[in-house]
Amino acid sequence: MVFLSSIAGYFSGIIPGIHVNTIIPALLMLDAKPIMLTAVIVSFSISQIFSDYLTSVYFGVPDVSNPLNVLPAHRLTMKGRGYEAFKLSIIGVLGSILITIIITFLIMPIFPSFYSYVRQYVLYLILFVVFYTLLTEQNIMKIAISFVVFLLSGLLGLLVLNTSLVSRTNSLLPMLTGLFGLSQILVSLFEKSKLPKQKTDEKINMKLNSLIKAIFIGSVAGIVAGFLPGIGVSQAVMLFSPFLPNTREFLVATASVSGSNEVFSFSSMYMVGNPRSGASVAVKRLFQDFTFFHFLFITSVMLISSAISFYISLRIGKVFPRMISKVDYRKLNIFIATFLILIVYSFTGFHGVLILLTSTSLGIFSILKGIKRVHMMGCLLLPTMLFFSGFYYSALSLLGI
Q: Would the pLDDT of 311 be above 90?
């Protein structure tokens, strides 16, 4: 079951717009025992983390002449080192899953007490992350623009999450797809970018100690992201960016955050009864009493699925760039953009497409202004900050929601 689910999850993750959260409702309809459904859901969630990096490395690559706001993986892909970027990413994911599982067992006795104590300071911790991220911009003008983008995305998040425009189940799909997906693809279209010829040698230009350091930092950052609501992968790793001096270390750490964050989502569900991802929320609904046995079972599934997904990644990682190099890159991006719009429309209807267009506009604005797109996580952070400050419903009332 884990083997087949990992394969299905991996290849479904390659399809743009298909995320484990959109598949979960269908998975929950399967006529199977809760423990079997848990294995399927966990396998899907883990395997898609690996396959996500296959598409993020090669799709939406910007014009070589425009280095502004280039993602770390794209920076290597533009130099023909996409396979290396992908390989570093999946090593980071695998390593972080192993490290986070070890850390979880070490902190398990003290974490509930620590969580109860720190929870009262969550608002201040989120504020620190937000302002630290803003101050990482290069100058006053970019800081000001980033702050405006943070507020606009936060306002968008409040509207999307608290109105009946789309169902709450799929409310994040059009917003996040526009902010972080479709916007990059459209920009690359207008720049007339193309995928450079890719090298698929086994060489990794990174020392072992640097690799281990980046994985460990990413694992810790992933736990931070899993602990603080609304904090995204990029924001978590940026807290530790002074310790990540080059593109490859930052890339590995960012990928490690993704793996660590998903593991900690399930760990948090057991330790404090607080699931932190769509997959962990779905699993929690399957059990009235989530025991240590269930946690050990999920841990085993994560390890097996990680091994399977890593092996698939190594196999397909070399073939994939050769496959897409035979396709017109501009036409490929047009197809992906069209497919994303159709996915959003099928799940959220006309109003979802309007949200998609609005969020895409904000995403394009951020890219063209050369600011970090992490500021658009305001779509989740501002509502979270308002909630913990006690002003959430006052803000909704002020907005007429």
A: yes
- Measured between its terminal Cα atoms, the distance across the chain in Å is 45
For residue 75, give its domain range.
2-398
Residues 6+ apart with CB under 8 A from 58: 77, 82, 86, 195, 320, 321, 324
- Long-range contacts of range 61-66, CB-CB < 8 Å, 24 or more positions apart? 61/188, 61/193, 61/195, 61/329, 62/184, 62/187, 62/188, 62/191, 62/193, 63/188, 63/191, 63/192, 63/193, 64/193, 64/196, 65/191, 66/191
- Cβ distance 234 to 254 under 8 Å? yes
Residue type (1 letter), 261: N
Least confident span in 28-37, 98-107, 110-119, 346-355: 28-37
Residue type at position 29: M
How many separate domains does the chain show?
Answer: 1
Distance between CA atoms of residues 157 and 379, nearest Å: 4
What is the DSSP track for 140-157? HHHHHHHHHHHHHHHHHH
Q: Strand, helix or coil at 366?
A: helix
